[in-house]
Design brief:
Length: about 375
Amino acid sequence: MNILLNPGPVNLSDRVRNALLRPDLCHREVEFSQLQNRIREQLLQVYDLSGEHWAAVLLTGSGTAAMEAMVTSLVPRNGKLLVIENGVYGERLSKIASIHGIDYITLHHSWGAEIDIKRLLKLLDENDDITHLAVVHHETTTGRLNHLAQLGAICQERKIQLLVDAVSSFGAEELNFESWGITACAATANKCLHGVPGTAFVIVRRDALVGADTIPRTLYLDLATYCQQQDKGGTPFTQSVQVFYALAEALQELEEAGGWRARHSYYSQLVNLVRNELLAMGIEPLLPATSSSVVLNAFYLPEGFSYDEFHDQLKAQGYVIYAGQGTLAQSIFRVSTMGAIAHADMKRFVAVVKQFISADDLS
């Protein structure tokens, strides 16, 4: 079996994989309603959120479906969106706004750059009609973790609703919904939660849904419709039933392991092992540890290796790394710590890399 060091899909634990074998189930039966209700409650419990004020809205689709549902459902026709870009996924938020004809502007940064608060404040001063701000929490393009506390304070002071892409951070990085003033966050089952691809979700303030447009922009991705029906135990469209089974099991596994804080700690141990060992071989990280998530880190390719060569040699030894994107494709590789990965797996990974480097030095 390959050890997946890509940022999702992830290696599954046996109990999550076995959950896929549970009985076939009609999505209009009470048993499905009970399963769906359980998952929605479990998702809120990850960050201790109240079901009175918050809703977990489940969708069948990838993380991008949750991003698109969040933006299209919550930015009204008379609203204006500011998108912060410092990687591929911030730029994807802008594409969503553009495709749906949403009034938006961008605060663009080079990939991997820290959010420039001074530029942000200037832009907000020049555009006092901004109603919503969308940002990626963990930008997997480079592994940068965008720190949201100051951003949240700015949004609260200016009464701007904060929309967060937490697709690759939910379940392993801090998300302080209340103090950061988050209105909604989009996420998925198959990253830090260690579930199966096919189910995504949006955690949203219920009062934000009440204020959403009565005429939706989309049929399939309208959060208000999903929430209304899911609150009643139903679903507007066919859901990925077996994937729901796996997500419920993965969430139970997360709770038993100690929740998101324990997962953060475990990822941190793995990524520190990788960073320290690779640095000792002369393989430099793209970003400092203080700017990076514990979920994924990016590294410059070892001297003398193309990405394809490095990837293929590692895959032959049972490890799947991830390429850089865009202009970074020829210079970096990425390593994720998500999924059912043991310390021993990562120790062997760095040993294999060291073997390749040593062999290359001798040639």
